[in-house]
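Risk register update: the risk of archive-format incompatibility is retired. Evidence:
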Amino acid sequence: VQLVESGGDLVPAGGSLSLSCVASGGTFSIYSMAWYRQGAGKQRELVAEQFTGGERTNYADSVKGRFTISRDNAKAVYLQMDNLQPEDTAIYYCYGDIGLVVGGITSGAKDYWGKGTLVTVSA
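Archived output:
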């Protein structure tokens, strides 16, 4: 399974960006998808996550009210980011908790990561 992100860019403070992530490669079942980010010299942190089925979502306190995670089908997740601030500058990674389906049987879930997309917010 591959996760490919897109949408990173340079924007001024107060601007907006929309990130996309698409999963591909075989037949699989997604249990949850999320966005993480890692700023320079910082640890990777959870930004937002959404669980399949109940569509329960969680957000980091720092992005609540500004970022929105969504999924429009079984294989894609999006992150709408509004009112971006310089502290949001980071590489944003897509994450999936995914089980492969082989012969009609879903294997145990594994962690999958994209390679990241850079978001830079200028002051």
